[in-house]
Write a sequence for this structure.
């Protein structure tokens, strides 16, 4: 867990991680090589040149001590050293922060010149000033910077940096071509998980092509299984509806005594169960996404529930926001949630929220709710939590929440259960990505 902070800082995307893997070795190599060049080459060269300059400065100072500045002018001119009065206030060494070779130059001059007072490398970078203490007082000797250290030491570093950036760009272009097939495979798999089939052709490296072909085979098998299930259930529906219709017709022709009425209710319940089973089986048959106003859709659902005698309130922003949704599937999902809320409670509330990257439908009721330790079980198909839910309004088959979660997952969203803070019953949050 000590590296958890590092994982949080890592890029989440494939391109970002590939760029990081590519850049870290190159940047590390640049830093190590640059440090070695500065230490082994520029500093050693600066030390050797400064040691030779110290001999020339000592010779000029000796001539000044013997006969004065005029007598030393010829020697200084021959050595290309200027003689002048010391600058005012120069009592300590001066250098720029980035002047790394100046550190070595000042160190060597101080080691070889006991008379050294100060070295000024920052006032005029091209012509440093060295102040020495002579017999007649301090004197300033100026030389060109080329006499003290190698000229333009930054050129090699700049060349290394630009070469490294160029090679990184070239390597990233090649790497991007290798990452594109992986990204396309991920997009195709994500779309299939949301109930959409997008064209996909395996490409890229051998391993990626193999994974792509395996995905296509898996997608084909799943589509075949779903088609066979739909056909089978369609046949079962047709075969069961016919005898149920005959039973209803036969019961309607009998005298309506209590036993016949009870049998009629059983037949009606069998029809309702059959419709519920078929709704669950048709979960994969989603409609196509179209521009839809979620607030208008929610208002229609509340109006339908009110016509059926349910007490449902709506909390939503003003209509007018159009999003790409599957309206029939979302309508079926939210209607299942509202029906479930009214089944176990007397009042329900539908809330619509539109955050930046998602749509949230929240359904709350004033029923008994579901214990926290049984909420995951309640989302499974055919799960009936009779001990926790009210049965005064009839029994169900435990498919309402399962159908809603199936539709949410096929939209790439999620369905979660909680407790309503206001009404005290169950709270169901349906979150769909935009």
């Amino acid at each position: 867990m000590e590296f958890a902070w590092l994982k949080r800082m890592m890029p989440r995307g494939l391109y970002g991680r590939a760029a990081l893997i590519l850049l870290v070795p190159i940047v590390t190599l640049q830093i190590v090589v640059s440090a070695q060049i500065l230490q082994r080459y520029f500093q050693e060269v600066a030390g050797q040149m400064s040691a030779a300059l110290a001999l020339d400065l000592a010779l000029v100072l000796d001539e000044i001590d013997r006969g004065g500045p005029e007598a030393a002018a010829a020697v200084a001119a021959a050595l290309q050293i200027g003689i002048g009065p010391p600058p005012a206030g120069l009592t300590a060494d001066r250098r720029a922060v980035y002047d790394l070779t100046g550190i070595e130059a000042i160190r060597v001059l101080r080691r070889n010149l006991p008379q050294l007072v100060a070295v000024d490398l920052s006032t005029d970078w091209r012509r440093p000033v060295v102040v020495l203490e002579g017999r007649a007082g301090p004197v300033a000797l100026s030389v060109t910077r080329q006499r003290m250290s190698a000229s333009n030491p930054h050129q090699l570093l700049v060349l290394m940096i630009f070469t490294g950036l160029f090679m990184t760009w070239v390597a990233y272009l090649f790497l991007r071509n290798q990452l594109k097939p992986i990204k396309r495979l991920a997009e195709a798999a994500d779309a299939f998980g949301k109930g959409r089939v997008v064209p996909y052709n395996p490409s890229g490296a051998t391993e990626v092509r193999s994974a792509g072909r395996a995905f296509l085979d898996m997608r084909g098998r799943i589509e075949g299984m779903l088609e066979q299930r739909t056909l089978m259930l369609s046949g079962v529906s047709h075969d069961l509806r016919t005898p149920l219709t005959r039973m209803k017709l036969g019961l309607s022709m009998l005298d309506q005594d209590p036993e016949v009425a009870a049998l009629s209710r059983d037949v009606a319940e069998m029809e309702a169960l059959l419709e519920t089973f078929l709704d669950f089986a048709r979960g994969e048959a989603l409609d196509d996404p179209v521009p839809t106003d979620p607030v208008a859709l929610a208002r229609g659902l509340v109006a339908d529930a009110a016509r059926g005698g349910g007490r449902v309130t709506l909390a939503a922003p003003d209509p007018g926001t159009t999003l790409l949704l599957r309206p029939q599937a979302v309508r079926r999902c939210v209607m299942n949630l509202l029906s479930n809320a009214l089944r176990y409670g007397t009042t329900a509330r539908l809330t619509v929220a539109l955050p930046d990257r998602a749509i949230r439908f929240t359904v709350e009721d004033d029923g008994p709710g579901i214990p926290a330790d049984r909420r995951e079980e309640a989302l499974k198909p055919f799960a009936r939590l009779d001990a926790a839910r009210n049965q005064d309004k009839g029994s169900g088959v435990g498919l309402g929440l399962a159908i809603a979660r199936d539709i949410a997952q096929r939209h790439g969203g999620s369905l979660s259960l909680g407790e309503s803070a206001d009404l005290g019953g169950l709270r169901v949050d349906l979150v769909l990505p935009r």
